């Protein structure tokens, strides 16, 4: 049984359908790549599933239980976590304290006292290779470090399902390779992931399956090589004329 | 256990012991000044819970002070309750009032929240003006207390409780939740924090302490009227003290209360208007030169132009 099942999820802003009738399954321990041009509705879909935005229609079941209609904090307590595309650090706290908040809250059954939370946070920072910055104020981190901290906070929440919204944007090639390895390691811990990414090299090597959104609709879904070579996907990303030339 | 860890605790206990013995040594005038100082410090610590830790700039905390003052006032004069019962009732009612008011208005943010809280305080003043049980515009006159030292020790006890509460916030799961809300409410919710509940609890806690302070104030000052206990400037004072000393810290508000109450006491014996000007000047200077408050400057033992310049850049002054 899939761990997460989305059925006909729709989100309209006034008359504009940002996401329409999206259905997909996420298997246990699976990495599902989510791609699509800017404005295709990827982040909106995450916002709706995680409760940050109310849905217009549709259902999302997590371990068989309905998520839609639950407030954000309850969804994260069930074990569904996310990172933000535009990172939202707690600026005046240290990196360690940022991650401690994840350990103190997050999925039900976490640390109740600061000592336990601190130890858990230190372990997570070790895992994402950010332990050397633990005492630094979040404000002073550079872009790759910020992305890592965002990831560390989400991991400290002990998620069952984790949405990663462009955690590789702004990273250089070496950093991307490190991030890919890290995400594989996270999956190795039994976390199921939905990864939104524009970096094709990364998404190809990470994903078990890829789903493509275009203008808020699901264009296609399948194994990475099939999807990325699909002329319609190429057209969506690079324009129809490029796709025709590529085929010729 | 090392010595460095116990040093601050020992220092606090010593300071407390010295304070507790003060009335025996100092003049009655000084004792009155200390009671007033304790009250201001309680109010600053109370504001700090919601303004400093949670990051919601409340401009209406005097409403809780007023609710506490009138609760005690009515119970003492109309129902003949002793202070030992009337005071807890004042704290409890102010707490309940804060929770009920907080639930709707804590959905607002920034300026809107500030304006709403200001409205709550002003509305309460008008309500009290028009009620019979509160003595309307003429106010309430308390029975005379035979033990003036009682106020000193009760106010000191409330201050200790308020300070300990702030200390607890700085090292508890609940406090971390509040700070997370202050730093980024969306991220806090996404991390599993029930933001609405946390904010309401913080508001209620803040209200309880302001209510207790108001309760003691009413009996101590022996006369209360709507303009006296629902003064907007009193909220402003709380904010200035907390921000001047260091919002979101444990001892910042204490420090702010001590410095500002002392200076304004000294100034007001010379020229009343000068005290007001001083308050205004403090706000401007603190915002410009030490946005994290006096306690931050002391803690880092440095006040460099580089920090001021950085502050100018960050806040685009």
Fold topology:
The complex is a heterodimer of chains A (248) and B (317).
Chain A: E1 4-13, E2 16-26, E3 31-35, H1 42-49, E4 57-62, E5 65-66, H2 72-78, E6 80-82, H3 95-104, H4 114-127, H5 143-156, E7 161-165, H6 173-188, E8 192-196, H7 200-206, E9 209-214, E10 217-222, H8 224-229, H9 231-238, H10 240-247
Chain B: H1 3-25, H2 28-53, H3 62-77, H4 83-105, H5 110-129, E1 140-141, H6 149-170, H7 173-183, H8 185-190, H9 195-221, E2 223-224, H10 226-229, H11 232-245, H12 252-270, H13 272-289, H14 294-300, H15 305-314
Antiparallel strand pairs in B: 1-2
β content of chain A, as a range? 15-25%
Helix and strand content put the structural class of chain A at: alpha/beta
The shape of chain A is globular
Structural class of chain B: mainly alpha
**Helical segment tally of chain B?**
15
Secondary-structure element string of chain A: EEEHEEHEHHHEHEHEEHHH
Which word captures the global form of chain B? globular
Number of helices of chain A: 10
The major β-sheet of chain A equals: 6 strands, mixed
Could you list the spans of chain A in which at least 5 consecutive residues all have pLDDT below 50?
A: none
Instruction: Report the β-strand fraction of chain B as a percent range.
Output: under 5%
The ordered string of helix (H) and strand (E) elements of chain B is: HHHHHEHHHHEHHHHHH
- What spatial order of strands do you see in the largest sheet of chain B? 1-2
How would you summarize what this structure contains?
The complex is a heterodimer of chains A (248) and B (317). By secondary structure, chain A is of the alpha/beta class.
Structure characterization notes:
The complex is a heterodimer of chains A (248) and B (317). In chain A, 40% of the residues lie in helices and 24% in strands. Chain A contains 10 helices and 10 strands. Chain A has a 6-stranded mixed β-sheet, sandwiched between helices. A 4-stranded antiparallel β-sheet of chain A has the order 2-1-4-5, with helices on one face. In chain A, strand 4 and strand 5 form a beta hairpin. In chain A, helix 3 packs across helix 4 and helix 4 crosses helix 5. Chain A is globular, with a radius of gyration of 18 Å. The mean pLDDT of chain A is 90. The longest helix of chain B has 27 residues. The relative contact order of chain B is 0.16. In chain B, strands 1-2 form a two-stranded antiparallel sheet. In chain B, helix 2 runs parallel beside helix 6 and helix 11 crosses helix 12. At the A-B interface, helix 2 and helix 3 of A face helix 7 and helix 8 of B.
